[in-house]
Amino acid sequence: MKIFGLTGWSGSGKTALMVRLIPALTARGLRVSTVKHAHKGFDIDHPGKDSHNHRVAGATEVLVSSPRRWALMHELRDDEPELTLSELVAKLSPVDLLLIEGFKREPHEKIEVWRAAVDKPLIAAGDSSIVAVASDGPVPGCPVPVLDLNDAEAVAAFVVERCGLGHP
C-alpha cells in the first residue's frame, strides 16, 4: 500500500484539494483510502443514538453496522495516548493508495498546500518529506516543484508518478 500525504497550515485548502484529488485518482482505477488528523476533539456520534449511549455507559469500542457501511469507534479513556500514524494505518484494509491529510511532522512524502493569503511560512523550506507544493499563485523561494492547486488532475498525475502507481 502506497502512502502519500497532503499537509499545510489550517485554512490553506487541504480538504478542498483532497475531495477533488480522490475522484481524480479513483477515475484512474485506483482504490484510495484516507486518514485525516483532527487537532480538536471530534465526534461522529450523537447524543440520543444507541451507539452514543453505549460509549457514554463506558464501552471502549462500539461498532455500528448497516447494509451500506460500518463504523468502529474506539474511545480513548484514562489518559490513553493518541495513536500514532503507523498504528492507525495498521488498522486499515489494504488499498492501492492511502492519502494522509495532516500529520505534517510524519516522514511520509507529501504535498504542501500553501496560499500566500494564509500568511504562514512555507513548510517545504525546512522539511525534506515535502516533495511538491500546491498553490494558487507563485511560491517565492520554493525548493520543490509547484503544482496548480486548482488543477486536481495535474496533482493526481504527480501523485501517481511519485508513488509508481502507473497503470493498476
UniProtKB/TrEMBL annotation:
Q: Which NCBIfam families match?
A: mobB
Q: Which CDD domains match?
A: MobB
**Domain Molybdopterin-guanine dinucleotide biosynthesis protein B (MobB), first and last residues per copy:** 3-136
Q: What name does UniProt use for this protein?
A: Molybdopterin-guanine dinucleotide biosynthesis protein B
Q: Which GO BP terms apply? A: Mo-molybdopterin cofactor biosynthetic process
GO MF, one annotated term: GTP binding
